[in-house]
């Protein structure tokens, strides 16, 4: 019997400022909510554990510096636009794509 604690579904857990207005955006085809004033990185990582795959190893990446300096948080929008998630404010209706077909092997599919 395993005693390991299961990984949380989200990388970030919101513990403060939870009364801010809600903002809807689409994450990998699913409408989800975050809060006004969130960066795109925060908005994504309150729902899942990564923002993209490394182009070198395909390992999941969740940003590193969080201040716009390391290039680790580039994400794609459905229209092909690339955004640095840690320095991009979340906007209502954004449509972001972070998953590839190989993600179902790690996360078990779904959102
Ligand atoms: S996390 Fe380093 S540039 Fe965004």
Characterization of the model:
By secondary structure, the chain is mainly beta. It has a domain at 22-98: Ubiquitin-like (UB roll). 10% of the residues lie in helices and 23% in strands. The two termini are 27 Å apart. The protein binds FE2/S2 (inorganic) cluster (FES). Residues 63-66, 68-73, 84, 86 line the site of FE2/S2 (inorganic) cluster (FES).
Task: Identify the notable features of this structure and list them briefly.
10% helix; two-stranded antiparallel ribbon; 2 helices; 7 strands; Ubiquitin-like (UB roll); 111 residues; globular; 23% strand; mainly beta; single chain; five-stranded mixed β-sheet; binds FE2/S2 (inorganic) cluster; disordered C terminus
User: Radius of gyration, rounded?
Assistant: 14 Å
Arithmetic mean of pLDDT? 88
Shape call: globular
Strand content: 15-25%
CATH topology of the domain at 22-98: Ubiquitin-like (UB roll)
- Low-confidence segments, ≥5 residues, pLDDT <50? 104-111
Fraction in helix:
under 10%
Q: Tell me the number of helical segments per DSSP (H or I, 4 or more residues long).
A: 2
At the first level of CATH, the class of the domain at 22-98 is: Alpha Beta
Ions and ligands: FE2/S2 (inorganic) cluster
**Structural class assignment:** mainly beta
Query: How far apart lie the N and C ends?
Result: 27 Å
InterPro entries: 2Fe-2S-bd_N (IPR042204), 2Fe-2S_ferredoxin-like_sf (IPR036010)
Organism: Paraburkholderia guartelaensis
Protein name: (2Fe-2S)-binding protein
Keywords: Oxidoreductase
């Amino acid at each position: 019997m395993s005693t390991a604690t299961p990984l949380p579904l989200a990388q970030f857990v919101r513990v403060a400022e939870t009364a801010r207005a809600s903002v809807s955006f689409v994450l990998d085809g699913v409408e989800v909510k975050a809060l006004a004033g969130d960066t795109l990185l925060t908005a994504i990582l309150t729902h899942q554990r990564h923002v993209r795959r490394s182009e070198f190893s395909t390992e999941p990446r969740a940003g590193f510096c969080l201040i716009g300096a390391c290039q680790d948080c580039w994400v794609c929008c459905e229209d092909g636009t690339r955004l640095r998630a840690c320095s991009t404010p979340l906007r209502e209706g954004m449509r972001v794509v972070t998953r590839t077909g190989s993600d179902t092997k790690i996360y078990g599919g779904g959102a």
